[in-house]
Amino acid sequence: MGLFGLFGGKNEGGIMDVIRCDEQEYLVWKWRPNGESVNSTKKENSIRWGSSLRVKDGELAVFVYKQDNGDLHEYIEGPYDQTLKSDNLPVLTKLLGAAFDGESPFQAEVYFINLAGNVQIKFAVPYFDVFDPRFLDFAVPMAVRGSITFNLTDYKNFIKLHRLIQFDLDAFRREIKDVVIKYIKSYVTNAPSQHGIPVLQIERQVVQLNEQIENSLRPIIEQDFGVNLKRLDISAIEPDKTTEGYRELRKVTADQTAKMTVAQTDINIKNLEETMRIQREEMQRAQKLQTETNYLGAHALNQQAEVLKSAGEGMGNGAGNVGLTGAGGINPAGMMMGMMVGQAMGGQMANMMNQMGNQVQGQGTPPPPPVMSSYNISVNGQTSGPYTMPQLQQMAINGQLTTNTYVWKQGMANWALAGQVAELLPLFGTTPPPPPPSI
User: Fold this and answer.
1) Burial class (CB in 10 A: 0-12, 13-18, 19+), 338
2) Do residues 174 and 107 make contact, with C-beta atoms less than 8 angstroms apart?
3) Count of CB atoms within 10 A of residue 6's CB?
4) DSSP 261-326
5) Nearest to 113 by CA among 55, 46, 67, 53
6) Range in 172-176, 260-264, 322-326, 392-396 with the lowest mean pLDDT
7) Closest residue by Cα to residue 91 from 18, 211, 176, 6
8) Non-local CB neighbours of 76 within 8 Å, separated by 6+ positions
9) How many CB atoms lie within 10 A of CB 238?
10) Cα angle vertex 155, ends 151, 157, to 5°?
């Protein structure tokens, strides 16, 4: 198409216009010169250089130039308020070239796109059947109510997907609404089997399902419609509680829950009985082991006592012989040796008796370890602890504990300086002074 075919002659075209959008609620709105109809393309209504263009903040003005090889677009984002000249419409200037002067009219479709406003669509999905995979004989009708909110951010992609010349926001809403209803219906229908949600508990999972559906639906809305899904709000997922399917499913679910409760109770009782049986057997084995230990200890004691007795008798006889001289007199050295051997064996026997007695009576355990002192400390009004003596020693080495640090432990009436506590003085390399001499 030549320039004259596109723009007409120099003397064609209407007067200069103010190009602006005064609509309150819109997504896409087409400007019409001199009040002509939406689809007007008369040459006498062409736009002239010097017309005023006003684009509010959050708006976008799109100039569409029809060409044989496809439409060309100019994009002007608000805020903008200037007259149209060659320097603010570079695409048009390139098309005109040097054939016309600055007053030449040109034909273009001008659209305003709302980039700041949000569009909300309320939807209601009528009752549809949902089946619990555990009980496929019972269909429960479900209804879903809510709304979606979207806006337009990627306007170039939006223009590629939609014809601006006959854009109808109501029709656009219906298209999106149909897709949302279709997707929500499919998602809720498959939720029991794919996400393990019992049918009778779906209405309690609104928040969880809302988040999952919104994340899955967002890329579909963006790719198919070129708008940004800001949020999905499912206000309710409602089963029809008056239907036979709902009542039957509720009944069979309650019966199964009761059976599971009884079965679980039986399992718990059996587990308790098995636990008690194991504990009894363990106790019996412990008692048997203790009895065997006591028996073996007593038996060993008797054997050692017999050995010592035999040894003592032998040594006594030997000592008696040693205590006599060849002439029938008394040998003092032999008598003393016999007494010493007898004493040694007696002491050994007494020790054995004590040890075995302690083992039999269960008193062979070592005494409990001594109780270690532990102190709380106060630094700048902040208390911490308690700390053991090794910890306090390390703190003294690091400078965290000094003789002027307040300390306290169980049994002390009040806080005291560490340097005044005798038990802590070794931590600082000092010892308490000796008591004053008595007068």
Assistant:
1) buried
2) no
3) 18
4) HHHHHHHHHHHHHHHHHHHHHHHHHHHHHHHHHHHHHHHHHHHHHHHHHHHHHHHHHHHHHHTB-T
5) 55
6) 322-326
7) 6
8) 53, 55, 60, 61, 62, 63, 88
9) 14
10) 110
Instruction: Please provide the size of the chain in residues.
Output: 439
Q: How far is CA 9 from the centre of its chain?
A: 70
Task: Supply 14's token pair.
Answer: 């209407």
pTM, whole model, 2 decimals?
0.52
DSSP class of residue 203 equals G
Long-range contact set of residues 402-411: C-beta below 8 Å, sequence gap at least 24? 402/428, 403/428, 405/377, 405/378, 405/379, 406/377, 406/378, 407/375, 407/376, 407/377, 407/378, 408/375, 408/376, 408/378, 409/373, 409/374, 409/375, 409/376
Q: Which two tokens stand for residue 292?
A: 């065997």
Query: Does residue 86 contact residue 106 with C-beta atoms inside 8 Å?
Result: no
**φ and ψ at 69, to 5 degrees?**
-95, 20
Structure tokens at 5: 């075919």
Nearest to 230, CA basis, from 286, 153, 329, 318: 153
Residue recorded with tokens 């309690």? 204
Cis peptide leading into 79, omega within 30 of 0?
Answer: yes
What's the half-sphere exposure (Cβ side, CA atoms, 13 Å) at 213? 28
Output the six-digit token pair for 345: 């064996």
- Judged against a pLDDT cut of 80, whether residue 267 lies above it is answered with no
Helix H or strand E encompassing 234: strand 228-239
Label residues 381-393 b or e (16+ Cβ within 10 Å = b). eeeebbbeeeebb
Residue 274 pLDDT? 80
